[in-house]
Specification:
Length: 538
C-alpha cells in the first residue's frame, strides 16, 4: 500500500514538473522572435486624423509616411508646423513618405559610399527607398508594432542622424525583427532640416521668432502625435523613449533641454552625438541669415521674397552654411560656453549614453594615407593641428592602453575620434547628468571592430556601425552576436529605464564609480576606460 502511495506521489510530481516545464516553454521571452501577433494582410489603425492602412511583415504591422504635421511649404515655410489635416476614408501608408529637402541621399539608400548595404542589411527592398522622394512637406513618420491591441507596449521614437542637414527615419522600416523579438513599438520621424528647419528670421520679423527651431518643433509635434495616437498602435504613451545617434543624439539632447517637450518622453538614448546644446545665439544665427539673403540678392526690406522662392534655389544658396537649433530664448534657452551641461528639467529622465572608439573611421580615408610607424606622429600632429611634441605624447598615451595591438592607422583613428565630440563627448554628458543625482545614467563604449563599409579591410569601431545592429539589421553574420546583445539591452532600457539583462548585468554610471559597459568580442564592464584617452582635451 505504501509503495502504491509513493508511486502515485511520484507520478503527481512528474506531471506537475511536466506542466511547469511546458508552461515555461510556452512562455514568451524577450530576445526571441515570438511577439508578432498581427494577422491581417493589410492592417488598419485609427489616428486622430483618420484611418491608415499598412502592411504585415511576418506578424509586424508597418505603417509608412503617416502625416503628423500640416504642409510647411508656401505660407508655412519657416514657421512652427501645425498638426496634420484630417482625411476621409483609409489612407494608404504602405509606401515611404517624403524625405526632407536635402543634399545627397540617406545612407540607407545604397549609395556608392558602401554604407547603404551595411545599413539595409543587404535587403534594400524592405526599406522602400527606391521610390522615396524629397519634399519640403516632409512631416511624416513610420510606425512598427507587434500588435494593434491594447497591450500598452513601450515605445521608442528614433530621431535620425545626418547632423541637422540630412537623413530620414527610414532605418526603422527595417527594424521589424527588433519589434518582433522585444515586443516594442518603433517610430521613425522625418522633419525639416538644414535651412528649412533652422534659418533664423526672428531679427527681421517677430512672427518668425521660432524659425531657428522649426526642425526641433517638428520633432516636438511628432512626439505630441505619439502621445495622442500610439495607443491605437499597441503602444503606451506614458512609456516613450527618444533615441538618436550622431545628429539624432544631438536632437535628443536638445529635446531634453526644451521646456515645451517636457512630459512627452520618459527616457532618452544619446549615441555618438553628445555635444553642447544652446550656445548658438540669435545674433550668430542672424549674421548667417544675412549671408544667405545676400546670396539670394535679398535684403532686410525684400527678405520676404524668400517665402516664394523655389526650395531648390534656397537650398543651393545655403550650401557651406552650418545650420543648427538656435537658442531663441523662447523654445531653447541660450547658455554661452562650450561645456556639456545637464538640464534640470530632465533630471528625472533615465539616460543611456555612449560612443564608439573609432568614430572617425567612416570619415577619414586612412586607406589612402599610408600611415605607418614612421609617420604616425606626423599624421597625428597634422590631423589634430598640434605640435610634434604634443602628438608624440598622444601616440604614447594611446599605445599604452591599446589591448589589441592596433595598427598605426587604427591608433590614428582612435586618437582623432576621442578628440571629437562624437567620441569624447559621451563621457562628459554622462558625468554631467550623473552629477545631478537624479535618474540613473548608463554609459557605454563600443570597441568592437565592425567590418569596414568600404570593403577595404580597415575594420574598426566606426561612427554609426552600431546603430543598425541595435535595431537588428545585420549584414555580416559575425556581427549577429553583438547585435542581439545590444538590441536586448537597448530594449530593456526602453522597457524599464535600465539596460541590464540576464546575459548582461549593467551597473549605473556614477561620478565616483564611473562604470562603463564596453562592447567588444568580449563585452565587459570597466571603470572609466576612456580616462587615458582624455589626454586629448588637456
Amino acid at each position: 500500500m505504501k509503495n502504491r502511495i509513493l508511486l502515485a506521489s511520484l507520478v503527481s510530481l512528474a506531471c506537475l514538473s511536466l506542466t511547469v516545464s511546458c508552461a515555461r516553454t510556452a512562455e514568451k521571452r524577450y530576445g526571441e522572435p515570438v511577439f508578432g501577433t498581427v494577422v491581417e494582410k493589410e492592417p488598419v489603425a485609427q489616428t486622430t486624423c483618420g484611418s491608415v492602412r499598412g502592411e504585415n511583415r511576418n506578424g509586424i504591422a508597418i505603417f509608412r509616411g503617416i502625416p503628423y504635421g500640416a504642409p510647411v511649404s508656401g505660407e508655412g515655410r519657416f514657421l512652427p508646423a501645425k498638426p496634420a489635416v484630417s482625411w476621409e476614408g483609409v489612407r494608404d501608408c504602405t509606401k515611404n513618405g517624403p524625405a526632407a529637402i536635402q543634399d545627397g541621399v540617406p545612407s540607407i539608400s545604397g549609395n556608392p559610399s558602401g554604407l547603404g548595404e551595411y545599413f539595409n542589411g543587404g535587403h534594400p527592398e524592405l526599406f522602400g527607398t527606391a521610390d522615396e522622394k524629397k519634399d519640403e512637406d516632409c512631416l511624416v513618420l513610420n510606425v512598427l508594432t507587434p500588435g494593434l491591441d491594447k497591450a500598452g507596449r513601450p515605445v521608442v521614437v528614433y530621431t535620425h542622424g545626418g547632423g541637422f542637414a540630412t537623413g530620414t527615419g527610414t532605418l526603422t522600416i527595417g527594424a521589424d525583427k527588433w519589434a518582433r523579438e522585444e515586443d516594442i513599438v518603433i517610430v521613425g520621424i522625418n522633419h525639416r532640416l538644414n535651412v528649412f528647419g533652422f534659418l533664423y528670421l526672428g531679427a527681421l520679423d517677430n512672427e518668425y521668432a521660432s524659425s531657428g527651431m522649426a526642425g526641433m518643433l517638428d520633432l516636438k509635434l511628432a512626439l505630441e502625435w505619439v502621445r495622442d495616437n500610439i495607443a491605437s498602435f499597441g503602444g503606451d504613451p506614458a512609456k516613450v523613449t527618444i533615441m538618436g545617434e550622431s545628429g539624432g543624439g544631438m536632437k535628443v539632447s536638445t529635446l531634453m533641454a526644451m521646456d515645451s517637450a517636457h512630459g512627452l518622453f520618459s527616457k532618452a538614448i544619446v549615441e555618438s552625438g553628445s555635444n553642447v546644446v544652446g550656445n548658438f545665439s540669435k545674433e550668430a544665427a542672424a549674421a548667417q541669415t544675412n549671408i544667405l539673403l545676400d546670396r539670394l540678392n535679398l535684403d532686410s526690406k525684400s527678405w520676404k521674397q524668400i517665402l516664394t522662392l523655389p526650395a531648390e534655389e534656397i537650398l543651393n544658396a545655403s550650401r557651406g552654411l552650418q545650420f543648427a537649433p538656435v537658442a531663441d530664448d523662447i523654445n531653447l534657452k541660450y547658455i554661452p560656453g562650450n561645456e556639456i551641461i545637464a538640464y534640470d528639467i530632465s533630471k528625472d529622465i533615465p539616460l543611456l549614453v555612449g560612443s564608439s572608439a573609432d568614430e572617425m573611421g567612416v570619415f577619414v580615408p586612412v586607406a589612402e594615407m599610408g600611415i605607418d610607424e614612421t609617420n604616425l606622429t606626423v599624421e597625428v600632429a597634422q590631423g589634430m593641428h598640434v605640435s610634434m611634441e604634443r602628438a608624440a605624447k598622444l601616440v604614447e598615451a594611446f599605445k599604452a592602453v591599446d589591448k589589441k595591438g592596433n595598427a598605426p592607422w587604427h591608433t590614428y583613428l582612435n586618437i582623432t575620434s576621442m578628440a571629437s565630440f562624437l567620441g569624447g563627448g559621451a563621457f562628459n554628458q554622462a558625468m554631467a547628468y550623473a552629477g545631478q543625482g537624479g535618474a540613473p545614467v548608463f554609459h557605454y563604449l563600443v570597441e568592437y571592430d565592425a567590418p569596414s563599409p568600404f570593403g577595404n579591410g580597415y575594420d574598426c569601431a566606426w561612427h554609426t556601425a552600431d546603430l543598425p545592429l541595435q535595431m537588428r539589421v545585420v549584414l555580416h553574420p559575425e556581427t549577429e552576436f553583438l547585435s542581439k546583445l545590444m538590441a536586448h539591452s537597448w530594449a530593456a532600457f526602453i522597457r524599464n529605464g535600465d539596460p541590464s539583462t540576464e546575459e548582461l548585468p549593467w551597473p549605473a554610471f556614477t561620478t565616483d564609480g564611473r562604470q562603463v559597459m564596453v562592447f567588444d568580442d568580449q563585452t565587459r564592464v570597466e571603470k572609466d576606460p576612456t580616462a587615458p584617452y582624455r589626454i586629448v582635451s588637456e
